[in-house]
């Protein structure tokens, strides 16, 4: 069974969606039912970081191997990472609207996330500005590694130095200390794994589509030669 | 080491031979400051220390982007090929970073002097503020040199330079603004240790990465 993890993804996602929306959650002031967003908002960032980390790993591999497959994988991982980042912003915005009163409060974590998204949009722009495959691969891999090195302090270090509305920052107690009870953990951990697996799956499909496209182009390029030969 | 010194010397000699570029950058920062000064003339009381500080750093950021963007763009293709055969890429990037840091120190120093001259000087802890300028100049130079190298490989490099560098430079800029605000308010120096160490850490990461990654960029 090569595709066991896809079956696992489907099962885990079903479990997370049903248990996340219907399961019992602790009653908290202000948070109320919106605490369920924990399964869908926080996990997005885990999935995003994993995707971007994989993207950087493939960028490093590309610089070592110069195989165009590694570059395409790296780009697709980055795109899936961006998707999760955007979804994380949207779910966070929804949550903030209910708990903090406005969809985009001036919070260092939100701003860092927005800047992080800008960095990766710039990465996509950079990719699109090259015609030559090898050149595009090499330069965007260099930028990708460079960007990730700045992205990590931006997301993990900067918000912790200032006050934030988020739990676990600026003197606020961490989420786990007061409301991540064992019941929620049973959904939260599978949710993190499930979203990451889903991200892998999306990336794999997109990469395969890319590969098929590339093969098609190669065949198209070879056909006139065949005709001349025959 | 010798190679870096030679390359650094070449950069300085090249800059000195075309002094119009250097004077152009000096004029750029001076006229930007003048524009800001005259724009705030209507309500000078709005120029609180916070605004004063932020405005200064934004002016410096734009100057840095403009000054460093040309560090690769001005090299002609033939000359690049010539270096390619002569020098090793690590020496080239290090010499460019050092040169750009010196350039930024010069521009920031003159800019700060002129800024204080026209906009007044609310800084309470001048030594610390100057330290933040030094750290900021070196940080800007090291980050932007690498981004300029990346952007120069693409076609519309001036737009790309801004798009690529602004988000990447932001963590550094925020740290510097915080550090210089502490100096502005004359807070105790121990308060700023956090910012200084984070800045130094980001600088080190950026320079190490430039050193490791530039050979790949250079080859294309």
Distance between the termini of chain A: 43 Å
Q: How does the overall form of chain B come out from the CA principal axes?
A: globular
Distance between the termini of chain B: 25 Å
Biggest interface pair, counts: A-B, 27 and 32 residues
The major β-sheet of chain B equals: none
What is the residue-averaged pLDDT of chain A?
83
| Cα gyration radius of chain B (Å) | 18 Å
Structural class of chain B: mainly alpha
> How many distinct folded domains of chain A?
1
Low-pLDDT sequence parts of chain A:
none
The number of distinct helices of chain A, counting runs of at least 4 residues, comes to: 7
Radius of gyration of chain A using CA atoms only: 21 Å
Number of domains of chain B: 1
Q: What is the general shape of chain A?
A: globular
Tell me the series of helices and strands of chain A, N- to C-terminal. Answer: HHHHHHH
GO cellular component, one term (chain A): plasma membrane
Membrane topology (chain A): Multi-pass membrane protein
Main location (chain A): membrane
GO molecular function, one term (chain A): heme binding
Q: What secondary-structure arrangement, pairings included, does this model have?
A:
The complex is a heterodimer of chains A (230) and B (220).
Chain A: H1 4-22, H2 38-65, H3 68-99, H4 108-128, H5 133-161, H6 175-178, H7 182-229
Helix pairs in contact in A: 1-7, 2-3, 2-5, 2-7, 3-4, 3-5, 3-7, 4-5
Chain B: H1 2-17, H2 19-39, H3 49-73, H4 77-86, H5 89-119, H6 126-152, H7 157-184, H8 193-219
Helix pairs in contact in B: 1-5, 2-3, 2-5, 3-5, 3-6, 3-7, 5-6, 5-8, 6-7, 6-8, 7-8
